[in-house]
Specification:
By secondary structure, the chain is α/β, with parallel strands linked by helices. The chain is built from 10 helices and 6 strands, in the order βαααααβαβααβαββα. It has a 6-stranded parallel sheet with strand order 3-2-1-4-5-6, with helices on both faces. It is elongated and about 65 Å long. The two termini are 32 Å apart.
C-alpha cells in the first residue's frame, strides 16, 4: 500500500509474495525502480519537437516518419538503442536527455525495498532494456546501481527482454533458479516472455509514471506501489536468504 498517495491504493492488496520460495529478485529499471515520467516526457514531447524543428519544410511528414519508425522498432532492441536513434534522428540523444535530467527519480519505496531485500539476503539483479550509456547516465544521478548486486543490460545479451532468448542468455551473466525467482517489471510483454521462460513469480507496476494513467492487465498482478512487496519479507536473512547468497 502507498500511504503517501492513498488514492492509488487498491480495494484489496496485491497478491503477496511467498518469500520462503524466492532467492533472486529481478528488477526492471525505468517504470519499476525509476519513475517513467522522465522517459515519457523525453519520447512523447522532447524528441518529436526537436526532430520536427530540424525539418521545418515538412513538419507533418517528419512527424509521420518518426512515428512510423517508433512503431517499427517498438519491442525490439533498436527501440532502446542510443546509437539507432542518433543515426535516425540526427539528434544528440544523450545531450537531450540531460535537458530533462531533473525528472529522473527513484520511485516511492524503491530505496526501502532494496535495502530490505539486502537485509533479507535476497539477490537483487537489474535487468534493463536501457542502453548502457543511458543506465550510466541515470546511475550517476540516482546511484541506482549501488543498491543492486548485479546489473544486466539487454544490449549485453544482444536481445530485448521481450524476446525469449533474453532469459536463456541471462543465465550466463546472472545465474538463477527460475522457480525461485521474482521479476518486477512494468513491461507486460517482458513479463509474458519471462513467464514463458519459467520465471515463477511475476509482478507488474500499476503506475510506471507517477503522474500518468494506471496500467491494467488481466494476466499479471500489478503492484500499486513497491511497498506491496514488503509484506512478509523477513527482517533479516533467513533460510531462503542463505540459499540466495550461495
Amino acid at each position: 500500500m502507498d500511504p503517501q498517495n492513498p488514492e492509488k491504493n487498491p480495494h484489496a492488496p496485491a497478491l503477496a509474495v511467498d518469500w520462503s520460495r524466492i532467492d533472486t529478485v529481478l528488477f526492471d529499471m525505468d517504470g519499476t525502480l525509476l519513475d517513467l515520467h522522465f522517459d515519457n516526457r523525453f519520447w512523447r514531447e522532447l524528441i518529436p519537437r526537436e526532430y520536427i524543428r530540424c525539418q521545418p519544410d515538412d513538419p507533418e511528414c517528419a512527424r509521420r516518419r518518426l512515428e512510423d519508425e517508433m512503431q517499427r522498432v517498438r519491442g525490439k532492441l533498436e527501440w532502446y538503442c542510443v546509437d539507432h536513434w542518433t543515426r535516425f534522428t540526427g539528434l544528440d540523444i544523450l545531450g537531450l536527455k540531460r535537458e530533462l535530467a531533473h525528472h529522473i527519480a527513484l520511485k516511492p519505496h524503491a530505496d526501502a525495498l532494496l535495502a530490505a531485500l539486502q537485509r533479507a539476503g535476497r539477490r537483487r539483479v537489474l535487468v534493463t532494456n536501457a542502453h548502457p550509456q543511458v543506465y550510466a547516465f541515470k546511475h550517476r544521478l540516482t546511484r541506482i546501481g549501488d543498491r543492486l548486486d548485479t546489473i544486466v543490460s539487454a544490449h549485453d545479451l544482444d536481445c530485448a527482454k521481450e524476446e525469449a532468448a533474453f532469459w536463456e542468455r541471462l543465465q550466463r551473466i546472472a545465474p538463477h533458479d527460475p522457480e525461485r525467482t521474482l521479476l518486477v517489471d512494468d513491461n507486460l510483454l517482458a513479463l509474458a516472455s519471462a513467464a514463458g521462460a519459467g520465471i515463477a513469480e511475476l509482478r507488474g507496476i500499476r503506475y510506471p509514471d507517477e503522474r500518468g494513467e494506471p496500467m491494467h492487465s488481466e494476466d499479471f498482478v500489478l503492484l500499486e506501489s513497491l511497498a506491496d512487496l514488503m509484506s512478509g519479507l523477513p527482517a533479516t536473512r533467513d533460510r531462503a536468504g542463505d540459499s540466495a547468497a550461495t
